[in-house]
Amino acid sequence: MDKLSVGLLGFGTVGTGVVHLLTNEQEKFRQQTGTQILINKILVKDPDKIRKIDQYNQLLTTEPSDIVDNPEIDIVIEVMGGIEESRKHIHTALKNKKHVITANKDLMALHGSELLQAAANQGCDLYYEASVGGGIPILRGLTDGLAADRIKKLIGIVNGTTNYILSKMSHHSVSYEEVLQEAQSLGFAESDPSSDVEGLDAARKMVILSHLAYSIPVTLDDVVVEGITHVAEEDILYSKKLGYTIKLVGIAELDNGEIDVRVAPTLLPTNHPLASVDNEYNAIYVYGHSVGETMFYGPGAGELPTAIAVVSDLISVAKNMKHGINGQHIFLPQNEKKLKPADSIESQYFLRLHVKDEPGALSKITGLFNEQEMSLQKVIQEPIVSKKLAEVVIITHTTNQQRFEQIYQLLADLDVVIDVKSNYRVEGMN
Amino acid sequence: MDKLSVGLLGFGTVGTGVVHLLTNEQEKFRQQTGTQILINKILVKDPDKIRKIDQYNQLLTTEPSDIVDNPEIDIVIEVMGGIEESRKHIHTALKNKKHVITANKDLMALHGSELLQAAANQGCDLYYEASVGGGIPILRGLTDGLAADRIKKLIGIVNGTTNYILSKMSHHSVSYEEVLQEAQSLGFAESDPSSDVEGLDAARKMVILSHLAYSIPVTLDDVVVEGITHVAEEDILYSKKLGYTIKLVGIAELDNGEIDVRVAPTLLPTNHPLASVDNEYNAIYVYGHSVGETMFYGPGAGELPTAIAVVSDLISVAKNMKHGINGQHIFLPQNEKKLKPADSIESQYFLRLHVKDEPGALSKITGLFNEQEMSLQKVIQEPIVSKKLAEVVIITHTTNQQRFEQIYQLLADLDVVIDVKSNYRVEGMN
């Protein structure tokens, strides 16, 4: 095996990064794998487009089967994105006994188990480190580095766009709309940002992480998802006053064999390591039964960081080929899925209310909590003179979701409460 | 291979953690490796000592050859510490074709290359994830997760004792001596803390990290080491005023094929992710040419975190045995060692001076920097009324070490300068 032949599906941002590395670091990779890695074909939509790298123009094709059915090609790298087409191509590649590397979180979140099973059946590798956390080697961290431990909780900042927006809102006191526009003009947010800002992208990554951390076949439908479009400047301001930062995090928690996975804007104490993960950076915070707390931090996206994850996978595949052990490192969920019921999902909560500016209003509110035997950790009341009302911000002690929802309803119905403006979970205290 | 037999050299803190995991997580490890992992013998000094775990008392031995020459044993776990004895035992174990896992940073820093070469010759595994960063999977991060990248710089908080001391000094404004005493009484520092507080422990870990990150055979003699015993409360106070935190960090930097490795108290900007790594936590910050900046964070020591690293290695060895690829993952330094000369080691510097409280003193000092064409980023002058002198604190712009040493000498010789109290590098700005 003195040469390995690679076909790329896609030549966009990540594809360009991969080609860049394979071109400039040939000698390094040859040293590491004992073999030369050569690009054979690259699938593109438009072969005539002007590209940053033009030395491979004679390898471009618009015909997928030039790659997935090409007997010369050993390894297929899928960096085209999308779901149905890439799913089909990967199945064909596996059927033809090609090893596959993908950076496609959408695909792996929706059809990961099916594709991994197909790879295992064929004795092929299917690696996807780049699908979560860009250049952060978090999937290997979970499957190898922390292999001996039982994970009890993961908290991840796994979407760069929303972290950029919330960081800017927090550091510069500007509104969601303003930052979104700026992020779009800088290329940090897509022109249609909905999959990012509504939390779907993060949810997909949490599905992938949950499979590896817990070996449980969580699906996207199991993930409770809340985006950041309704996060107000006031929420951020009051959080700061109380010593917290609002981040869009994914949380996957296993307790007594029951799992809960959610994505939502969440308050973290400002001294929590995740609270200082800013802008487009990602980080995954792992709570292990034995190891305690570890964190993996780095760039969550970008041409070269993501390409590093893809090519590190490629090096693993090449080594596996050398040792004849392809398809042996595939993790398929082994454990049964039991979702955690609302009355055992525990958390602290942040509430921001608009209340009538009249004597006894606050006392009615705290009275309700007292009556319901839910204790409060912090309370702020401030008048909003211009609107002739008062703003009350509350952080509860730990309670369960069911109890919280009951009290939320009672609060909303209270005569002195004009509106419950927002509520978020508070994490990272334990 | 339905059973694997393990012998432990040592039954102290880490050994107890390993035995705990192997006892309580048998079923999990059997699922992961397809084999049952059984403890065969445990080497101890005193078999009659009362232990936390007493169910293995009949497996205790005081005779090393019961383990390293025992044909029943497949894998030897060295958690006894020390250097010459453990080195001898590991050589014997390898000679007898046993795979070895060690948590011994001192041994790996001094004799790693020799032991790894012996393991490679025998076709045996030698893993040592636990030797750096306790439960943080940093060695795998460098060799697998970031395999495709070229590392240009590592900054590591790799010693928990000194990080605990500096954190407490910084957060509670107490002296080094007071915190050291407290740390000793709490068990965070040894009764003879010299190897920690003088930076030697961190230096050993930097040797191991440098081997893996750069594939260069750095030795302990190549590491410039400065401990924390002279870090004054004033240094910490002025650093804070200027927006920095002092941490004992190891820095390993490769540039133009030239390497520099050092351990020293260093200023980091307070918003740098390493600055908020507090108390006994460790973190390794990695600058890759392509990946950019990543960080691995977690508990740097402790019974169970360290045991997780050891047993994760054990799972790797078991999988390698299943696939018949032991000894294939040994990294021996491949590149030539060229140390960076002082005139190409670049950094910013912090200086704290005691100067005569007389008109024109500061101007003489800044005049000297001006004359020497070294520009200053920040200057503070404050009187110390009780001592009738003034304190001047300076942060320079980036310069090279040779130039800095020249200017340091000129400063010390200046008639208005009573004493240069301290000087540290300032890192993490690029």
UniProtKB/TrEMBL annotation, chains A, B:
Gene3D superfamilies assigned to the protein according to its UniProt record, in alphabetical order: 3.30.70.260, Dihydrodipicolinate Reductase, domain 2, NAD(P)-binding Rossmann-like Domain
Q: Where does NADPH bind?
A: 105
Q: Which cofactor does it need?
A: a metal cation
Q: Which PROSITE patterns match?
A: ACT, HOMOSER_DHGENASE
Q: Which biological process terms from the Gene Ontology are attached to this UniProt entry?
A: methionine biosynthetic process; threonine biosynthetic process
Enzyme Commission code: 1.1.1.3
* Name the record gives this protein: Homoserine dehydrogenase
